[in-house]
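Two entries, shown back to back:
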Amino acid sequence: MDSKVTLSFNEEVINRAKKYAAENNISLSRLIEYLLTKITTKEYRSLEDLPIADWVNEVSEGKAIYTVQRNRKASKKEFFESKK
């Protein structure tokens, strides 16, 4: 069951978050819910214990694999061809 909550953020942060949510076809509410779920389902003693994005850890450890970014059409074609 969903419950309503009122939060206050810096306007610039809200605008960036709305843009990010729209670009990823998710509502701002679901984005925030997702992020809070990720944070609260693990045991963190303080803000300093929050995880850094996996790719940041991989870069710092030298494990990152970089790929060439393709356009949407090429990605879509590859996806559908892989389903045949």
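entry 2 starts here
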Amino acid sequence: MSILAWIVVGLIAGWLAGMVMKGGGYGVVGDIIVGIIGAVIGGFLATNLFGVPGAVSGINLTSIVVAFLGAILAIGIVRAISPGRPSV
């Protein structure tokens, strides 16, 4: 997957995850970072736990959904271990 595809998928997935996880997003750069981390986590889990090879393989709906679910997981983990922040 090209760097441009990672950025586009990361932006979409990070923005969606920010909206779902009770927030207004994290800004463009923050959404891209959250989405890319989500794509890595989601792709790893999809491949190793569910046997889906190439779950994040370009700008398509499957990649966005996997990255979105991974981003939600990443945001949830960070909020759970972050001291002093209210867990919603």
